[in-house]
Write a structure and sequence with these properties.
2 copies of one chain form a homodimer. By secondary structure, the first copy, chain A, is α+β, with helices and mostly antiparallel strands. Helices cover about 45% and strands about 20% of the residues of chain A. In chain A, strands 5-4-3-8-7-6 form a 6-stranded antiparallel β-sheet. The radius of gyration of chain A is 20 Å and the shape is globular. The relative contact order of chain A is 0.11. The first copy, chain A, binds a DNA duplex through α3.
Amino acid sequence: MKKTNRVEVIKKSVDLLKYLSSKNSSAGVTEIARYLAIPKSTTHRILLTLCEDNVVHHCENGQYRMGPTVLLWSSGYRFSSGIVDIARPWLERLRDDSRETLHLSVYEGGMAQYVDRVDSPQTVVLRWSRLGTSMPLYCTAAGRAILAALPADEVTAYLDKTELEPRTANTEKSPVKLVKMLARFRVQGYAEENQENEENIRCIGGAILNHDSYPVAAISLTAPAFRFNDADAQKFGGKISAAARAISAQL
Amino acid sequence: MKKTNRVEVIKKSVDLLKYLSSKNSSAGVTEIARYLAIPKSTTHRILLTLCEDNVVHHCENGQYRMGPTVLLWSSGYRFSSGIVDIARPWLERLRDDSRETLHLSVYEGGMAQYVDRVDSPQTVVLRWSRLGTSMPLYCTAAGRAILAALPADEVTAYLDKTELEPRTANTEKSPVKLVKMLARFRVQGYAEENQENEENIRCIGGAILNHDSYPVAAISLTAPAFRFNDADAQKFGGKISAAARAISAQL
DNA sequence: GAACATTGTTCCGCAATACGGAACAGTAAA
DNA sequence: TTTACTGTTCCGTATTGCGGAACAATGTTC
C-alpha cells in the first residue's frame, strides 16, 4: 500500500482539513473519525494539535471547525503563485465583455484546481462552487484546454490511467473522439464543453502556458446553455484565447 | 517541554506552512530546514507528503511554494465561521462613512487574528498586512476592545502572563494604566489606540460578543494619525460601537 | 576545466513516537 | 433513572517516522 515514504499523520490531517472545509458547519470528533475511518483517539489528538495554531477552532459546543490561520496560508498562496493577480484583470475584462462568469484554474496533480472566479452580473447565475475545488480534465473546458496544450505522450498517459466516466448524459466517453476534439481545439485556440460536466452549463476555455509552452493553468467562461450558442462560443473563444496568451506572456 | 500530547510532525508541518506562506516566493528544502531547525530529510519528507494533495506546490526549479488546496480550506473557514459574511456589509458601510480602512479580527489563542479588511478609498492608504496575521491584544484597538469585554479574572490572567513590550514609543507599558483604560473603554463603548502599535497609525475598535456576552471578535477602524483626531475618534467610535452591537445580535 | 560548494533526494537501522483499544466523564434525550 | 450518545484521557506496545550520512545533479569559483 505505502509506495512513497509519506508521513501518515500529515496525510490524515490534510484529509481531516479537507473534510472540515467541505462542511459549512462544525463537526464532532466521532463524526470525523468515522468519515476518515481512523480511531477516535487519533482523530482527537490530531485536532488538538491543529488547534494549537488556530488551524482548527474548538467551538464552545465541543465540536471543531476551520480556524483563521488557513487565511494566512491562503493569502500566502496568492502571493507566491502570482498567477491569480495577473489573471484577475483579464477575467474582469472578459466578464464585462461577455456578462458571464469567468474562472481561473491551475493544473495540479492531474486535475484542474479552480483558484479564482469573477461573477456574471446577470440575474441567472451559477451555483457557487468553492475556491480550491478540483475538477477532472476530460469533461471541463479548462481541463480540455490544458490537455490540448500538453505533449502528446502525456495526453496518452492521462487517457490510459483515467476512466472517462460520464458526468452528464452528454459527456464524451470515447478517448478516441476526445483526442480528435483536442486536435480541433489546438487549431481554433480554445477548448469547449457543452453540458458535459453539468447539465445546462456550457463552457469554453484557453490554456495558460509557461515559458516552456507547458500548460500551467487555464481560464474559462461558464454560462447557462440557453443563452450561450455556437456563435457566442466562437465569438468569445477568440477573446479567451487572446487573453490566455496575454496572461502567458506576463508570467 | 512537551506538556500536551500533541503530534510533533503536525506541529512541524504547520510551522512549515506558516513560513512558506510568509514568503512571497518559493523556498528550498535547505532553507526551510534551517529555519525550522529540523533535519533536511525530515523537512523533505513533510514537503513530499504535503505535495500529494497540492497543499504545497513543487516548482520546476525544485523549490517549494504554497499550493492551491489551502484556498479550499480558506473558503471553508469563511463558511463555517459565518462572522466574515455577517460583518462585511457593516465594514463597508463604516468605510463609506469614514473613508478609512476597516478590519475584522477574531479572538483566538490570546491574540486578535485579523480575518477581513475593507480598504480606504483615499490615496494615502496603509501597508497591507496579510489576512490571518495575529496581533497582540494590549496595543491594538481591536485587542483592547476584546480585553475590555472579557471577564475581570481573564484580564488579570492575561496581564499576569503577558509582557507589555513597547511596539512604538507611545505604547502603554503600565498594566495598571491599561486596566484604567479598559474601564474607560467599557463606558464609552469603544476602544482606542493612538500610535501604540505602529507609528503614525491611530485606531478605534468595538467588540463583537456572542450570546453569553463573551467577546469572540472585534471590528476596528485604522487611519493615519494626521487625519484622525480626537473628534473623529469620538464621532466614529459611536458608530463602531453600534455596528459591533448589530453584528453581535446577528450572530 | 577541474575542484568545490551548493542544491534536492534517497537509504536504512535504531528507538522514540504516536497509535488505538478501552475506560472515563460529561450531556441530552427516552 | 436508564440509555445512548457525545468529547476526553490513559498507557503499554510496536509501528512509525526520525535523522545522520551518502547520493546525484547543478552551478559557482579559481
